[in-house]
């Protein structure tokens, strides 16, 4: 048995708030660093004074692109002054927090933050997300309550973000489980991707578990190492160390009909293979975990150094070298600037330019003033989380919806989407004065049809460096010495870096899974992976997928949210099995098929499904097998509890 290595020294979860001792003037200076609307929401909540949330201080619900909520400078100044005065009074009263708001009071604060009325259906979801003083999603039952004598074991494959939350919940419910992790560390994608510049593109208050918040993020958007530390801290804090077998890869899983168990073949750290069995199997292997090498002729011929971004070779010194980068997706856009700094020359091979969204704070550290707010008003982070949730995914989703009457559809899919396109295009025009380069980097497909890249401007600046060339000629071949493009030109390189993405459509590969009657999962899928709710698959009883087919989101939702929803569904499924004395549950094919028809129809109405631009969201058959096309609310509603009518129960 191996333990999670490393110290839990960086990310402190749910820290105790500090007492406010600063003078009035300093408090006003500190709060100026905070986002105004979440600040006022947090201050109203901790003081219990909801009269602070005056209608004229509400953010503009129609201005979702503006991170400060379309507030005028005068309104912002008024919010800061109101918040600072209320915090000074709070200080004078000994920092005594008001009792937690009741449902009606919560709804008032939420509506202030949203800038208008919120559908009643959202309130319980937002309350859970907010998780004020309480882990709202912890299971409300234990195995001891429902089936104390039943033997039931779960194996989780993968100790990344999804595996950790699933394990934590199983532990809370008192279910026996074990995590098998192929890597020598926890953290999944945040361990594997160690390329320079790697960082998350969702603000950290949202890209973190709802129940494990911290005021100690050093950046607005954490770099890889900080996130890896966060997930490692979580694994340690949740007491999972002894439950994780590192360097242990699941090779195959076969459903044993006689015993209603999964039989696993596992290769351990020393290379020996062993068999394990479990009642339920949770795959938490992710979608972006197997590097994809491009199908370019001669990849194997290059005689010098080359590597994929997710397998960065830190022993390769790029200093002064002639470096080629193939790909301009989210990974490459992050490592191209630091590679350009190190290399002698850099040539970037672009097939499709990314839409880049300028985010001023993307690479910035959290300033001391904002840190003061986070430490003294920790609810600020929670309300900021809710604000991001509301304004980004639920708020931005309409920008991706196709208007069937909108023409032409090639470059935008609706008037709103076209507005986004014009906004982005203006940024490109201002950032890239050279018309020839601008023509190369300005995307000709609708915004949100591919993953948008977040950046503080450095990516487009890098492409304008004298020692950087952007090549848009298609690659014909990789040769022994370099790369030959279709125009016949061969460029020589010392190092080739592949930023060519992941085998995202090959869900669960290379594991072999056999279900009822020995049916092979990959053969059944035929390269077109589907699942009901992205979680369960007919003929594969008691198999639960996390971040499975059609559970990815394109604009700013957090995958952690989906993992928390999936975990809830898995726990409720296990509860159903245990409380009814059942051995297995198998999703019915008609439920699965009807669900997938609806998903397909939904994706066709979104920019990423309607556009012909290539992306990792589509599999080789052209179907969007990755993305969830509906609201976050709907996924939450659908994953509350399993419907026994959708299953064959044994
Ligand atoms: P990706 O988005 O799939 O990008 C792969 C790049 O390689 C694309 O530019 C693609 O061109 C190019 N490419 C692939 N095959 C090629 C070929 N044969 N010839 C020329 N170019 C080729 O992969 P990624 O950049 O690793 O990102 C994957 C996903 O990971 C992201 O969308 C995001 O969800 C996640 N991610 C997130 C972050 C973050 O949080 N900041 C960072 C990195 C990754 P085409 O566009 O023409 O296909």
Put the structure in a nutshell.
With 650 residues, this protein is α/β, with parallel strands linked by helices.
Write out the strand line-up for the largest beta sheet, numbering strands in chain order: 3-2-1-7-19
Class from helix and strand fractions: alpha/beta
Give me the Rg, rounded: 25 Å
Instruction: Give the low-confidence spans.
Output: 1-8
Number of strands: 21
Overall description:
This protein has 650 residues and is an alpha/beta fold. The chain is 34% helix and 14% strand. A five-stranded parallel beta sheet has the order 3-2-1-7-19, covered by helices on one side. A five-stranded parallel beta sheet has the order 8-17-9-10-13, with helices on one face. It has a four-stranded mixed beta sheet with strand order 6-5-4-18, with no helix packed on it. Strand 15 (482-485) and strand 16 form a beta hairpin. The model is unreliable at 1-8 (pLDDT under 50). The structure holds NADP nicotinamide-adenine-dinucleotide phosphate. NADP nicotinamide-adenine-dinucleotide phosphate binds at residues 199-201, 288, 294-296, 326-332, 334, 349, 351-352, 451, 475, 499-502, 614, 616.
């Amino acid at each position: 048995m191996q333990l999670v290595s490393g110290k839990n020294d960086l990310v402190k979860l749910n820290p105790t708030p500090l007492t406010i001792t600063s003078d009035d003037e300093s408090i006003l200076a500190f709060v100026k660093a905070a986002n105004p609307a979440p600040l006022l929401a947090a201050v109203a909540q901790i003081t219990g004074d909801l009269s602070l949330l005056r209608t004229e201080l509400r953010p503009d619900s129609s201005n979702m692109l503006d991170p400060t909520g379309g507030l005028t400078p005068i309104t912002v100044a008024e919010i800061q002054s109101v918040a600072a005065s209320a915090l000074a009074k709070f200080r004078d009263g000994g920092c005594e927090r008001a009792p937690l708001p009741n449902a009606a009071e919560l709804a008032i604060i939420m509506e202030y933050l949203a800038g208008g009325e919120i559908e009643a259906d959202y309130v319980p979801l937002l309350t859970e997300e907010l998780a004020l003083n309480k882990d709202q999603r912890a299971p409300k039952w234990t195995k001891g309550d429902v089936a104390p004598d039943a033997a039931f074991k779960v194996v989780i494959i993968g100790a990344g973000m999804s595996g950790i939350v699933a394990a934590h919940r199983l532990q809370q419910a008192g279910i026996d489980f074990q995590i098998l992790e192929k890597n020598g560390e926890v953290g999944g994608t945040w361990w594997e991707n160690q390329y320079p510049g790697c960082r998350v593109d969702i603000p950290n208050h949202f890209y973190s578990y709802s129940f494990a918040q911290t005021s100690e993020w050093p950046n607005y958007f954490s770099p890889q190492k900080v996130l890896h530390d966060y997930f490692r801290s979580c694994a340690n804090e949740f007491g999972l160390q002894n439950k994780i077998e590192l360097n242990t890869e699941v090779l195959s899983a076969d459903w044993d009909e006689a015993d209603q168990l999964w039989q696993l073949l596992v290769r351990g750290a020393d290379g020996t293979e062993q068999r394990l069995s479990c009642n339920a199997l949770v795959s938490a292997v992710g979608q972006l975990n197997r590097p994809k090498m491009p199908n370019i002729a001669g990849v194997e011929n290059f005689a010098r150094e080359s590597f994929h971004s997710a397998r960065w070779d830190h022993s390769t010194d790029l200093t002064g070298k002639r470096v080629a980068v193939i790909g301009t997706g989210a990974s490459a856009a992050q490592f191209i600037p630091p590679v350009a700094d190190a290399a002698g020359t850099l040539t970037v091979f672009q097939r499709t330019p990314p839409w880049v969204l300028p985010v001023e704070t993307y690479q910035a550290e959290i300033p001391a003033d904002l840190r003061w707010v986070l430490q003294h008003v920790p609810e600020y982070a929670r309300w900021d989380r809710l604000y991001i949730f509301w304004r980004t995914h639920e708020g931005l989703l309409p920008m991706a919806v196709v208007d069937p009457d909108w023409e032409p559809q090639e470059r935008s899919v609706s008037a709103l989407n076209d507005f986004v396109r014009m906004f982005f295009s203006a940024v490109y025009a201002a950032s890239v004065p050279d018309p020839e380069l601008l023509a190369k980097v300005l995307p000709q497909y609708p915004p949100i049809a591919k993953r948008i890249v977040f950046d503080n401007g450095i990516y487009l600046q890098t492409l304008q460096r004298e020692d950087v060339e952007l090549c848009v000629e298609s690659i014909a071949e990789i040769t022994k010495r370099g790369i030959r493009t279709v125009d016949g030109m061969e460029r020589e390189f010392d190092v080739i870096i592949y930023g060519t993405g992941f085998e995202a459509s090959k869900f669960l590969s290379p594991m072999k899974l056999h279900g009822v009657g020995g049916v092979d999962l990959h053969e059944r899928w035929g390269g077109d992976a589907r699942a009901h709710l992205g979680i369960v698959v007919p003929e594969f009883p008691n198999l639960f997928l996390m971040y499975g087919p059609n559970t990815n989101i394109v604009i700013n939702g957090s995958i952690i949210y989906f993992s928390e929803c999936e975990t809830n569904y898995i726990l409720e499924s296990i509860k159903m099995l245990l409380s009814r004395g059942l051995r297995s549950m198998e999703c019915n094919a008609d439920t699965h098929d009807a669900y997938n028809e609806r998903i397909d129809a939904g994706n066709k109405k979104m920019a990423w499904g309607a556009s012909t631009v290539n992306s990792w969201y589509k599999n080789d058959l052209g179907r969007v097998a990755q993305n969830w096309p509906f609201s976050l609310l709907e996924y939450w509603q659908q994953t509350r509890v399993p419907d026994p009518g959708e299953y064959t129960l044994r």
